[in-house]
Structure formats: structure tokens, C-alpha cells
Amino acid sequence: MLRLMIVDDEEIIRTAISKMIDFTSLGYELIATAKNGMEAFDIICDSYPDVIITDIKMPILNGLELIERAYNLDIGINYIILSGYGEFEYAKQAMKYGVQHFLLKPTNKQELINALIEIHDSRNEVQEKQRLQQQHILQKVRFPMEQCFLMESLEWQQDFSQCFQKYDQLLSFPSHCLHACICTFIEDNNLNAFLKDINKMLEKNHITQFFPIISVKNTVILIINVETLNIQTKLQEFIENRTYPSQAVSFQAAFMHFHNVFELYQSIIEKISRFSQILLFDSSLVAYEIRNNLTSPWRLKELENIIKSSSNEMEFEEILNTTFSTSINLEAAKKISIELFLMQNSSVTEYSLDMACDFFRKIYSCTSTQAIYEMLRDVLSTSLQEQLSLDSKQKSYIPLLKNYVNNHLDAEYLSLKWLAENYLYISVGYLSKQFVKEEGERFSDYLNRIRMEEAKKLLALYSNDNIKSIAKQVGFGNSPHYFSQVFKKYVGCTPSEFWETSKTEHVHKSL
User: Fold this and answer.
1) Is 464 exposed, middle or buried (0-12, 13-18, 19+ CB in 10 A)?
2) Regarding beta strands 209-216 and 252-257, do their DSSP bridges make them parallel or antiparallel, or are they unpaired?
């Protein structure tokens, strides 16, 4: 469901639009109505609408000014502008911000429905493109994630259920039953030839591999889908009839069948965990050692624990810098960063999957280990701050949020949605509920209040400055008029009046 808001200074119009259309049947949820641009902007900060139906001519903050300010918060919002005759100059300006839908007042019901349907279809197309891009990114980093899945599973067998659930989101394990083919007596000197032959056989018979080939001492494990008993027999005969020079013992093939994929992987992890060396082969049959290498579960887990136990950001950066200052190549740096990132996240939700894909895309666009280090440092630094906050008595993201806001009061982009997606990496819905629960007020009220407190200090300190400069310093950009309106709402007078009062008080104190 898309989140919809209606903005108009005439109550009769807000009510009429709210009631004349069945928004739910069109895929919309009407989350709020607002009587002016100021009220609407606060709702945008708190409730993150997807689509806004707005009038142009409104008091305090008109429709165009609202769109301009909201654009700095979220460029993804779609707008439907309701305009009267002679207001198309406003409409032209609105096109700068991607507005495509302009309807004349009085509003025609069918025209409004058509616009809503068009926006809904357009957003669905964008989401489908994003889904395909996400699949492409996940496919690109699939093998490193499969390595990380094995390593985490081996390290935390007692928590395998949680580990499986996380990687199920990332690797999309099939829901249907899989089979494990256990090939034994494969000596090291015949391993490469055997793997090449088995790959050709699987490809020729259209047998899909659902996980890279795993090899432990004289044993190869294939995770495949065997659809018929005939295919199983054919594969078993193919394996057991293989012969190579210097082969001492005939190969054997056994099949493991399970009710679900979870049980299959759990059983495999149990079987391979007792071996000192585990190899995983990529699609080109290049072997990667899972244990006793730079990215073994013990080394990674040790590094993760050191990072988590860091008492401050400087210590954390020093640890990370030491890791990346070693002579590791670009691919190893990418792999380590992905594995550390995944280890920091114990679960993957639909929202964090988007965030993970964005991280993977950025990592694979890096052309140096330094760039990878800097990106990983920024992400893990936020994660470390979150952990320190969650380990405190409050166990909340709110102290982190408030600290960021207090240090970035001049940023126009501040909103719950931006903070959730770009700083805290959590669900905006969860953050919104947590903020109101803990602070007893909406985020927009908190933000405006502390901005006005800061504005009062600046006005008192810089009596020869201008209101436009003060407005910029507290996050109102080039909107001194809007700043004055918000200031009056929260302080009870305009900035000019406050200035004059401060000057008078200063003169009296001097006397």
C-alpha cells in the first residue's frame, strides 16, 4: 500500500477528496490530511508519505514551497498538484522537482483516480527494476556470501537456525527439497579431473547445483535437485564408473534426502565440521579454503569481537586500519568487508536486504582497498555506536538519533526516514514508534523545538547578522520566511521581534 497525504487549506476540499475515492481499492492508505504547508511538512518528517495531493495557494508555506523543502528530505515522493486557472506558472516551477500531475479545480474524480493509478503503476515499474538490480547485485556477490554462510555456520552451529534464516534472505534457498550427493574416495591428485567431469555431466543432464561444490578429505559434496530416481541412478553410475590414472580405489556415491533445505544444510555442516580443511569451489572450479586462511571463521570472529569490544571510535578505526594495511589484494578486501558486514547483522529483514544490496553494490564499485576500508569503517562505526547504545540502560536508538541531529542542525535533509535509512539502518516505522514512545512527542516537534532553541542563541549572539543567515544555520536553507513562521509558532514572536527584545535587554544590562 502506498502512503497518501492530502494538503489543502480548505477543509471542505480536504474532506471531499478524502471521501469521494476508495483509496484502498487503488492500493493507497490515506495516512493524513493537512491544512497548510507547515503542518504538511511536519507530517512528511514524521510519517514519510509516498504520494501527496496538494493545493498550490496556501498560507504559511504554499504548495510549491512545500514541494521544494520536501524534495530535500525525500526525492522519491510523488505529487499531484491541484491548481486553479492562472496558476500554471507555479506548475511549471514544480516540474523542476519531477512533478508530472496537475489537475484543475474543481477536482474531477476520474482524473484524480487516473493520476493515482498512473503513479501506482509507475512506482511498481520502478520497484521491479530495483528488484532486478538487487538480484543482479546479490548474484554478483553470491559466492562470497556462500563462503560466509559456511564460515558462520561452522562457527555457530548451536545458533544454526538464526544463521540459516539470515542467509535464506540473501541467498534465496529453494523451498523445494534438495539432495546431497556424497562422493567418496576422491584422492587429491584426481580431484580436479573429477570435478570437471562431474560438472559436464550435471550440465548435460540439466541437473542444477544449488550450492558450490564442497570438498573435505577425499570427499566431494554436491547439493543438487534430483527430480527422478532414474536421474539419481544415472548420476550414481557415472560417478562410480569414473576411472583415472593412479586411482587406487573405486569411487562411491551416496545420496542424502531430507524433508526440507534447513535439515539438509544442518546435516552437511555437522558432517564437515570435524575436518581441518574445507574447500569450496566457485563456478570456474577455483578452490577457496574455508579454514586456515585469512578469512577463516576464527580470524573473522576474532576481528569482529575486537571491533565490538572497542571502547571508542579511535580504537575501532585503528583495529580496522591494521587489518586493511596488510598486503591483501582488492578481491580479498571485498570479501572480508562483506563477511564483516554480514557478521554485524544477525538477521536480514526486507528493509535491511535493500540496505545490504546497496552496501554490496558500493563495495564492488570500489577500485582500491583504501576505498573499501573507508566505506566499511563508516558502516561499522555506526554499528558500533548502535551497540554501545543498545548495551546501555536505555537500550534504544534514540540517543544516537538525538546526538546526530544535535550535530547536524543545519542539514535540511533531516527526517525520520533519512535517519532510519542512511544513518541507523533500521525500519523507519519502528524508529517512529520508538521515538514517540520514549520522547512523548513527534520527531518533527522535537526537531523544530531544538532548532528554534539554537536559533534563539544565534539571534542573541549575532545581533548584527541577518535572518537569512540564521535560518541557514538551523536547517531552513533559503527559506527565511518559513523559518520566521516556525519560529513564531514555537517561540511566540518573530525573529525580528526576538532580536529587538534581545537588544533592549542587552542595553539595560549595560546600564
Assistant:
1) exposed
2) unpaired
Residues in the chain, pLDDT under 70: 85-88, 291-316, 319, 322-323, 325-328, 344-352, 382-395, 503-511
Which of 9, 118, 17 lies closest to 63 in space, CA to CA? 9
Place of cell 536480514: 348
- Nearest residue to 262 via CA among 122, 197, 167: 167
148-157 tens-digit pLDDT: 899 888 877 8
Q: Specify burial of residue 251 (Cβ count, 10 A radius: 0-12, 13-18, 19+).
A: buried
Task: Say what the pLDDT of residue 291 is.
Answer: 60
For the chain, helix, strand, coil in percent to 5 are 60, 10, 25
Task: Cell numbers for 206, please give them.
Answer: 540439466
C-alpha–C-alpha distance, residues 250 and 185, integer Å = 7
Place of cell 503542518: 39
Nine cell digits for residue 429: 516505522
Distance CA 272, CA 217 (A): 9
Q: Give the closest residue to 307 by CA, choosing from 371, 382, 378, 384.
A: 384
The CA distance from 291 to 228, in Å, is 35
CA triplet 207, 208, 213: central angle to 5 degrees? 110
Q: What spatial distance separates the first Cα and last Cα of the chain, rounded to whole Å?
A: 64
Any residues with CB less than 8 A from the CB of 73 and at least 6 apart, and which?
A: 44, 45, 412, 413, 414, 415, 417, 418
| The total number of residues written for the chain in this structure | 511
Q: What pLDDT sits at residue 503?
A: 64
CA distance 342 to 150: 12
